[in-house]
């Protein structure tokens, strides 16, 4: 099948490109790096984005460090790490933001995860909501606006350095979250303009769920006409097919390739990067950079300090296969931990949803 072949080709290319950069999380700066921090209770707005109050080696190089905020001193520390690093090493702070609640999140809560995964997620929606390439719920909009308010608070009170570069997943929920989060902020002088690059490989893990099926390039351009869309972005989604799904390994390879387009592409003097994405994709990025598992709630944001090092190695050429995902053809009989299809409905691997994009 053409789409599956294309997906495998993408993964194989990602292995070859990503293997030339090694990523490491630099710990000791954020609470989210610490094993003692519980992701289920962590509130980034109550914890200064998780930045730990501490002294830095670079403090002694700044005569007035005593009058600086923690975020100003941290930015100075990252600047010095880059200044003192060789050409093949670069440090960046990735602000990883999960989109606000989407209608697919609400539907999964309503139906329960087992039933959602094996039947309802393969449909375009129900009589009250659509979740193919899901939009934000009112709650999701509030979560994105909460992030906007917190960024403004950090700018005003902590004089935080605003992102130098912005990237966003092409899924509707991520696009709208990024827009609500950063539009209208009273930014410091000389801050980079908020014009996020729409990047295919920062999308959610590609499953058979219709919420992972992105809309067209034309739709994205019409939604935010002034945002750049990366070169090579196809008009239609050529990765989702409703039959095969990425394994975690395949997604990690994709995430590593995406990071390869972020690092070593601009001056080391621009180290702060915002990436608005998804729970599964952020989890994948964290695996690639060697960070501990840290699941984000909808609308949450965590920064991580990452060291990237170019290595002189022969790139790997093997690819990571995608997987077939059987699902029910009728609403399932479920339990707390598993999904069971009705006896009359044998699990299939063909798409259940059709015609959604005819409305767009």
TrEMBL record:
<protein>
    <recommendedName>
        <fullName>GPI anchored protein</fullName>
    </recommendedName>
</protein>
<feature type="signal peptide">
    <location>
        <begin position="1"/>
        <end position="18"/>
    </location>
</feature>
<dbReference type="GO" id="GO:0016791">
    <property type="term" value="F:phosphatase activity"/>
</dbReference>
<dbReference type="Pfam" id="PF00300">
    <property type="entry name" value="His_Phos_1"/>
</dbReference>
<dbReference type="GO" id="GO:0005737">
    <property type="term" value="C:cytoplasm"/>
</dbReference>
<dbReference type="InterPro" id="IPR029033">
    <property type="entry name" value="His_PPase_superfam"/>
</dbReference>
<dbReference type="InterPro" id="IPR013078">
    <property type="entry name" value="His_Pase_superF_clade-1"/>
</dbReference>
<dbReference type="InterPro" id="IPR050275">
    <property type="entry name" value="PGM_Phosphatase"/>
</dbReference>
<keyword id="KW-0732">Signal</keyword>
